[in-house]
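Subject: sequence -> structure tokens, single chain

Hey, anyone have a minute? Need the predicted structure for the following. Not urgent.
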Amino acid sequence: MLLTKEFAEILGMFAADGCLQEKYICMWGNLFADKEYYDSLVCPLFSKVFEKKVVPHEKKSNSVYGFYICDKEIVRIFREIGFTRNKTYDVSVPIEILNNQDPEIIASFIRGYADCDGCISFMKRKGKYIEFKCKFNTYPIIHIVSVSKQVIKEMSTLLTRLNILHTVVKKRSKNEREKEQSAIVVRGPTRVGEFIKKIGFNNPAQQTKYNIWLKFGMCPPRITMDDRKKILEGKINPFEYY
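Reply:
Had a minute. Here:
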């Protein structure tokens, strides 16, 4: 299958949140945070690329929202790309992406992955900073996380290819039974700005946070998607959360 920007973004999404079974593929996101993303981008993109109407639905028992595609040809495509069943701990960047030199293809894959298994947040500053930075959440940080060290290592290579400065860290879980995670971290206004410029987010759950920060110089933590929309519409004052 031809590696287009759209297909590269799908591969990023699938590497993060997809599941390959013998007779079908599926993808699931958070029922509340990701519903708009699946409705407006994920399912229309799958429908366009595979020329097969993909309709999302919710599974309230698991608080997830997504879809199944039962199609032997599509299953074959994902298998030939290199995805396997139970890929959680050993998922990697498809070789077609890893060896690609087209910055738009690379950016599309990373964006798809980050939209599903990444997030942007904003921290208060500590120390000798102006009062505004210490009182409000002003310092942007992007995290892209996985229990697969391989996929984080390879995406780090891709980010370096795009000249986006970042670090790779280990994240220990408080639960001893859970496997240690690896994460790509992009810190600060300049580096985050480069990430947004070259890659960006298509998931409104992340992009709305960045838009609030652009407008107000800060973004309150732990607020709902609906509240973020109301802030951007001028219906809520974000400073009232403090």
